[in-house]
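Q:
Just now I want nothing more than another pair of eyes on a protein record. Here is the record:
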Amino acid sequence: MHLTSAVTFVSDLDRSVAFYCDLFGLTCAILDESAALLVGPENCELYLRGKHAQPSRVLGSVGIQYLMWSAESAEEFQRCEEALRRESIHVRRERLDDFEILEGRDPDNLPIMIVFPGPDESERHAIMPRIYSW
C-alpha cells in the first residue's frame, strides 16, 4: 500500500502550479479555471484546487499536518532545496540518524517536508523530534 494522491487548496492556482511543478518535477496533466492535476513518476498525483484565501487550520490541530516527500537522489534533494529557497525564506535543513530532512513553505505558507534518502532506503530508528513541536 502507498499514498497515491494528495489534495491541496491554494489561493493562487497558477502560482502554485508553477511552484509544485518546479519543486517536485511534476507535470501539469489537467488545468481548468479552478483546479489542476499534477502528476509525477510512479503515478504520484497532486491535485490543486484554487480557493479564495481563508483562515488556515491551526498547526497541531486534529488532521493531517504535513505530507512528507522523499527525494530519489541527493541531486534531486539539492534541487528541491534550491527551489524552496527561491520561494521561501523559511527553509531549514537538518540531519537525523542517516537521513536529511528539508522543511520549507509553499506560496500559501503551507509546510513542505522532503527527506533523503526515503524510508525504503534508510530505516527510521526514532520519531523525528519535529513531530513533538506541534
